[in-house]
Design brief:
This protein has twelve helices and eight strands. By secondary structure, it is α/β, with parallel strands linked by helices. The strands form two sheets. A five-stranded mixed sheet has the order 6-5-4-7-8, with helices on both faces. Bound molecules: zinc ion (ZN).
């Protein structure tokens, strides 16, 4: 991340409110995020633009091309609400465990719970870095069941439960001082080999060394090119926590977070978004300032522009 975007960011609520009180202040920051080296027209290369009064558009002074600052992003429908969006993102990213939709509704004074809920989901969408690197080095992987009330059996799609696959960078469990690295969590269709492998190949670099238990769903990893170590838990009964301690630790923490901050009221349909938020928080757990998470969400919001921008153009929006 460009240092300038983080350097002067406020570290507490009073200075945040001073820095991003008006839509104009917020807009100026977004322009900096979009063009960290200064405006540059994509068509003619000119470096000066007019700022559109009502829309989030910078218009090239030379050729007239209109550059959307945030078309297709979470701010798309925003006309005057940028300061409120910024505050919402700050509240969500600076609070230690995140906040529920009900809490966001209270804090921002929304009349509708649904609005707060929708905003939170839009913010979560910008918590996934579109260019994030795959996990590497020593990785632990496993899967767990989330949600539902009845205890279920693995791999059989237990009723009401969602299979969540997890992978985390962690030195082998024999190592005394274990440093946990980055985390990935994803809902998968089942604990069958094809679904688990798809998760691993999407999230873990092929040169990584992966440790899993002996579940048949992981049997294909070596053939897929991974340095795969399977622990035979049948021969070390009851030791799963000790044999795959890192991934079990984060499964436990993530479930507690779902129960705590969100009171367990997370449907399978939206579970991935919540997992995205959990991973975002976990991977920034050592950040010195809450401003880093805030800046990252805004930067992602700008970078997920192109895909949706095409859709907007196709739809004939002006
Ligand atoms: Zn131009």
């Amino acid at each position: 991340m460009a240092d300038a975007l983080v350097k002067d960011l406020p570290r507490d609520l009073p200075s945040f409110l001073a820095r991003f009180r008006t839509d104009t202040q917020c807009r100026a920051y977004l322009v900096d995020v979009r063009w960290p080296d200064g405006f540059r027209c994509a068509d003619c290369g000119h470096d000066r633009a007019w700022s559109h009064h009502r829309r989030l558009i910078e218009e090239c002074r030379a050729c007239g091309k209109q550059h959307s600052i945030l078309a297709g992003t979470i701010f798309e429908q925003t006309k005057t609400g940028l300061a409120r969006w910024f505050l919402a993102i700050y509240l969500v990213t600076s609070s230690k465990g995140g906040i529920s939709a009900l809490e966001l509704q209270r804090q921002l004074g929304f009349r509708s719970y649904g609005t707060a809920w929708t905003w939170l989901h839009k913010i979560r969408r910008a918590m996934v870095d579109p260019d994030r690197r795959q996990l590497d080095g020593d990785v632990e992987a496993d899967e767990t069941l989330v949600g539902g009330r009845k205890p279920g059996k693995r791999g059989r799609g237990a009723a009401g439960k969602t299979v969540v696959a997890g992978a985390i960078e962690a030195a082998p469990s024999q190592t005394k001082k274990r440093e946990l690295g980055r985390l990935r969590l994803a809902t998968v269709a089942s604990a069958a080999g094809a679904d688990l492998e798809r998760f691993i190949t999407a999230n873990v670099a092929e040169r990584a060394a992966i440790t899993t238990d002996g579940w048949s769903g992981y049997k294909g990893l070596a053939a897929a090119g991974y340095d795969h170590h399977a622990i035979d838990l049948a021969r070390s009964w009851g030791e799963a926590d000790q044999r795959l301690p890192a991934v079990h630790l984060v499964f436990g923490l993530a479930k507690r977070w779902l129960l705590g901050t969100h009171h367990g009221a997370v449907s399978a349909k939206y579970l991935q978004r919540y997992l995205d938020e959990y991973v975002f928080r976990f991977n920034r757990r050592r950040a010195k300032s809450p401003a880093h998470g805030f800046a990252r969400v805004l930067q992602n919001a700008v970078r997920i522009t192109p895909a949706t921008h095409r859709a907007i153009v196709a739809a004939g929006a002006t």
